[in-house]
Fold this sequence. Notes:
Layout: H1 2-15, E1 19-22, H2 25-32, E2 40-43, E3 48-52, H3 57-63, E4 68-71, H4 76-86, E5 91-94, H5 101-110, E6 115-118, H6 132-152, H7 162-175, E7 180-181, E8 186-189, E9 210-215, E10 217-219, E11 222-223, E12 226-231, H8 237-256, H9 263-276, E13 288-290, E14 297-301, E15 314-317, E16 320-323, E17 327-330, E18 333-338, E19 341-344
Parallel strand pairs: 1-5, 3-4, 5-6
Antiparallel strand pairs: 1-2, 2-3, 7-10, 8-9, 9-12, 10-11, 13-14, 15-18, 16-17, 18-19
Amino acid sequence: MENRLAKAKDLLRREGLDGLLVQSPANRRYLSGFTGTAGSLLITEGESIILTDFRYTRQAKEQCALFTATEYKSDVWEALSGLLKEHSIKRMGFEDGFITYRQYLDMKKRLEGADTVPVGESLNLLRMVKDDSEMRLMRKAAEISEKALEYAMPLIRPGTTEREISKALVSYMIQAGCSGPAFEFIVASGWRSAMPHGVASDKEIEYGDFVTIDFGGKYQGYCSDMTRTFVVGRCSPKQKEVYDTVLTAQLTAIERLRAGITGREADEAARSSIEKAGYGRCFGHGLGHGVGLKIHEAPALSPRGDIVLKPGMAVTVEPGVYIEGFGGVRIEDLVIVKENGVENLNSMGKELIVL
Length: 355
């Protein structure tokens, strides 16, 4: 936690700030360890303070060893106003991508006299490179996900609804130690598998369907994310062709991934493979995204992915081909970037399985 706090103080110096206000749940937890739902961090060069109400005061003291826990009696802006004066904070950074416009106006009014400076994505980007403790939790989350899918696979048969499969996955993951799903699961069968974000519905699985399952859990705050696509009953030559196209693209991208390339270059490896197979127009989303305390975070692996990848970044690799009226395939692994390659957190095979 000390290294994380040091990164926040480096940001203070780079931006010429006297203080930094952190209120988003992910950044708050990342920098302090606090898991409550109400709390604000105020970080200066010499002080680290967590402001919360009476419900979380004890929790803040127990979880935030590097912070001074301060309980506010009325509202957080009144307490912050006093702290800004006490610590002579004239320029305070805030998370402009998190607070609403109404909250911004309230902040400006209540903190009159302080120059509030938006820090944009700068604070979020501190979370991109995972430390050893974060990687350990993400490995566990991925392990539980794979076991959950193995548990649910016998249900992938004609007559079962997509929602029943989703419920089985959630139930297993919670019993295995996850706090809950990392996002609303995608279970899309038949024609619905052509919908990249086709969340589980009451549609029944039919003989000959593609079934795409995109899911993940949260383990001690950290997310997993994986996708596998199956065929039920029998596989047509066209289905095999589409599946092999996506698998080749995914393996090509994983082979290309390493520290030093950009997210755009990783995306291009998969995209060019799919284009060569004649399905370029059927791959309409980016190759992947960062994962951590949030299911979608930096860096992006996409045509707009300008960030250079570094060791310790956790990203998904999930190309797909989606054909209206026919179906679609997506295959996704969660990997950690290394100097000369990646560590794949998913060990489950990717050969086409006909159930």
